Amino acid sequence: MYQNDPMKVLTGEVRLSYANLTTPRAAQQGAEPKYSVAILIPKSDAATKADIDSAIQAAANAALAKVWNGARPPVLKVPIHDGDGVRPSGMPFGDECKGHWVMTASTKNKPQVVGIDNINCELAPSDIYSGMYGRVTVRFFGYSNSGNKGVGCSLGNVLKTRDGEPLAGGASAAADFAGLGATPAASWNTNNGINPITGQPM
């Protein structure tokens, strides 16, 4: 139970993927744009998984009378999945999901994303990306939509704990041009007047 709310969870350190935390994005054409993130929870973090399972059950219990008219869905749809398995669509998860539980959280309201060195100051958009590590607050809720019943996950705020290798965002310039930069001009004179980077005469 986090902050006396049985449906709310503060995760341990997780990795963030599909991080739409600075600009809302529609999941499909015509849908309402939302801020969202895929949360990769290491399977070694049994405490966070137990907190999530407990919060999902609390949300289901609360929804039983308020949302589902006293009839619990025979198969409860939940927002957390096994990263070593397949997505609900049947497609396999990406390699970054291996060894993790995968959960997507979203919100209409812009989340605060802060750094562990200063929780009172929001991070610049350039410091927020898929692949970074952090801790996240989430809250679970029951829903019933066009006969579709289950438990969803609402995104709270994000605490960035450390940098990680970017995911789905392309390589950095330093990685792309490793070994090509900072070549002293003097060394070009030893190559018969040919620039070793471009291959063109100097």
What this model shows, in words?
This protein is an alpha+beta fold. The chain contains three helices and nine strands; from the N terminus they run E-E-E-H-E-E-E-E-E-E-H-H. Strands 1, 2, 3, 4, 5, 6, 7, 8 and 9 form a nine-stranded mixed sheet that branches. Strand 6 and strand 7 form a beta hairpin. It starts with 7 loop residues before the first strand and ends in a 14-residue tail after the last helix.
How does the SSE layout of this entry go?
Blueprint: E1 8-10, E2 14-25, E3 34-42, H1 46-66, E4 80-82, E5 100-107, E6 113-115, E7 118-122, E8 133-145, E9 148-162, H2 173-176, H3 185-188
Parallel strand pairs: 6-9
Antiparallel strand pairs: 1-8, 2-3, 2-8, 3-5, 4-5, 6-7, 8-9
Descriptive labels:
14% helix, 202 residues
How far apart the termini lie comes to 68 Å
Taking all residues together, what is the mean pLDDT?
87
| Radius of gyration based on Cα positions | 22 Å
Question: How large is the count of helical segments?
Answer: 3
Work out the number of β strands. 9
Topology as a string of helices (H) and strands (E): EEEHEEEEEEHH
Biggest sheet layout: 9 strands, mixed
* Beta-strand fraction estimate: 35-45%
How would you name the oligomeric state of the polypeptide chains in this document? single chain
Low-confidence stretches: 183-191
Which structural class best describes the helix and strand composition? alpha+beta
Shape: globular
Tell me roughly what share of residues is in helical segments. 10-25%
